[in-house]
Design goal:
Length: 109
């Protein structure tokens, strides 16, 4: 049985599925790495290694607000950032104005 950790404002999750770091958002209208068109109004995100279609809970460490997103792109490619959110997802956790925020993510399922 795996040990559990309590990280940031995230709920208790297994160490293998938890990651904390920076997040940013983007609102392009281009093709994603998965081949679908990016839609800033959808709850989607870019991650370097999680499989396309994976569901991830993203919690803003400053506000405690969470959103569930689907991975459909690769990135971010900025040091210290672990996920890029669509504009709609960023809005749900209160980080559109700042452009970035410290978050914890947990893969679901």
């Amino acid at each position: 049985m795996a040990a559990t950790l309590s990280l940031c404002a995230c709920s208790t999750i297994t160490p293998a599925s938890a990651q904390c770091g920076g997040a940013s958002w983007y609102a392009l209208h281009s093709r994603t790495a998965s081949g679908e068109m990016m839609n800033p109004a959808q709850m989607t995100a870019a991650h370097r290694s999680l499989p396309f279609g994976a569901k991830v809970k993203v919690t803003n460490s400053r506000t405690g607000k969470s959103v569930i997103v689907r991975i459909n792109d690769r990135g971010p490619f900025v040091r210290g950032r672990i996920i890029d959110l669509s504009k709609a997802a960023a809005g749900k956790i209160g980080m559109v104005r700042s452009g970035h925020a410290p978050v914890c993510i947990a893969a679901l399922g």
